[in-house]
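[scheduler] slot 2 assigned
[scheduler] job type: sequence-to-structure, two independent chains
[scheduler] chain ordering preserved from manifest
[runner] begin chain α
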Amino acid sequence: MPERVGTIREAINEALREEMGRDERVFIMGEDIGVAGGVFKVTAGLLDTFGPERVRDTPIAEAGIVGLAVGAAMTGMRPVVEIMFSDFTTLASDQIVNQAAKLRYMTAGQTKIPLVVRTAMGAGRRAAAQHSQSLQAWYCHIPGLKVVMPSTPADAKGLLKSAIRDDNPVIFMEDKMMYNEKGPLPDGDYTVPLGEARVHREGTAATIICTSSMLYPALEAADLLAEEGIDVEVIDPRTLSPLDDETLIQSAIKTGHVLIVDEGYQSFGVTAEIAARVQQGAFDYLDAPVRRLGAADVPVPFAPSLEDLTIPNAERIVEIVKEMRA
């Protein structure tokens, strides 16, 4: 029987549909998610299946959306909210950072916050500076939040189902350029544990640790490097918080060279934290300093020629791997 193939959009929709069917406490809400099916059509068809009580269109009020969801989670529901762009999660930062992330701790575990905030991140759609940021590092900095970044249809489905079942608030970051990305899509109740990295390609010459959409230029770079006899390992952490330090460090020990690629701003970001952990855990085995590649530290430009320059690409990954090994 041929393997089923689907898109990341279909995988997320399927995960929501299955979890809503499995658990009547699960409901979704956000701007235009019902009648319109979401700005990226991820929630299409769910209103017809589950009705307006469980698929709730909301006003344009991010703080209100997340605030309502926190309250619902405290009373035993399992809300999944959609914030159109990760840039707009800043409007709900008090509800996310000061309420959702803190309440389980402040009530000594008496209150659980099983909340998922789905949001779209990343540049490349010519949407300019206020609709193109990748703010995952912000939320990784906050104890009490889990941060998930899928890169394939299978992982999108499995990680979202695990996130919905988790009793803690989860920020689920979906790269807006990847919704049409195709790949194997498992049937049925498929889950991926939070906190486990995935090795997409094994190698011994260098390790490329890449998040979300950066998996694809990393794999392209690996193919280009292989043509020159440089066999690199490619790892996707899949969740940034919790982070699978062990898998990343063991790969660094094996290869001796590490490059970390993330679409968030390079300064003070995900690449820096992972580099610090890898450097500390594998210092005696490294043959060169850990290298980092993130988005340029500028507001994302609207002009296509300038925007493309801010996003890490395969060519730059190849250059850095060669520089490390020189």
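[runner] end chain α
[runner] begin chain β
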Amino acid sequence: MIPDWIPNIHPFIVHFPIALLVVAVLFDLARLWFREQSWLQNAVIALYSTGTIGLVAAFWSGRQAVETVSVTGSAVPVVTSHEDWALYTLIFFGLFTTVRLWTWWKVLEKGWVLPVLILPALIGTGMLWHTGELGAKLVYKHGVAVGEIDRLGQQIEELEQRLAEFREEVGPEVHEDGSWTWRIGAGADQAVAESFTIEGANDLQVSTGRDDGRTHLEFTTTDEKSFLITGSDLSAIDGRAEVNLSDFDGDFLLIHHYIDSENYQYIRISGSELQQGQMINGSDNVLGSGSISRVGWSTFRVTASGQHFYGYQNGNTIVHTHDDEMESGKTGIAFTGTGNIKIRLIEFGAL
């Protein structure tokens, strides 16, 4: 049984293959001086084999782990780098262990062969160290999967929302790096035309209202596809929107890497699915999708770092896909359909 304070089994698994492979390399070095000890040779082969199998379990538990934790801000590129290096290390030790098993079976580890094989073993240890360091940085520097950090983050968000309403901020706050935050307050409807580049909608109806004691922006839509884009060009991004689509029949998109209406990336709420994909030269390429609920208020989030793309609803990972990174572009929202879209918050940050 996993304790309720640990969100996944990755921390239980990951330390075993690291220990096994490090000990395997140490035993390998010892064999340079004790070559006649057959038990040492057998131990090395057993350690490399079990350690590599453990790496497979650690890698797949890590892929599942990232879907159970909240990863935000500067932690996102660390997560993607950690996953990439974990894959490289797994492939390396898979090939290396295969070679070691073959040389052991053919009784070839004599003379100059063993010293030559030690070098890639040391390289693999370096890869293992770097991968582990990235994982440690996620926990001890960025607080990923640390419950108290998540609770403090939620409290900070609530305080920032109250402060924005107190200041009566109308338009989005744009930062020097091109990122922007828009916590909806009174008069936000007047700022839409001033703060956003609007494409597609000739007669966009915008108003404000209050729900559960908070102000929201409300779009009354038609079937025409509309884009609202702002900010500067961004590469790696972390974007989110708090929306209510209960009275909307259509598709709502968080847009990033926007070049024009024919080229951009997105997460799209379509029916009961959250889809992630790329529009390239007008061709829609859906990379992945997952089931969601669109009843009531939800926070949808997208992150893109390198070739890794994530889509979330209310902090839960819905879709995780990979594809080529698009060139830097602007950010915003898009929608097509009929009904009313309510928005409390839109934010895109540069990673």
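[runner] end chain β
[qc] chain β: The longest helix spans residues 75-105.
[scheduler] slot 2 released
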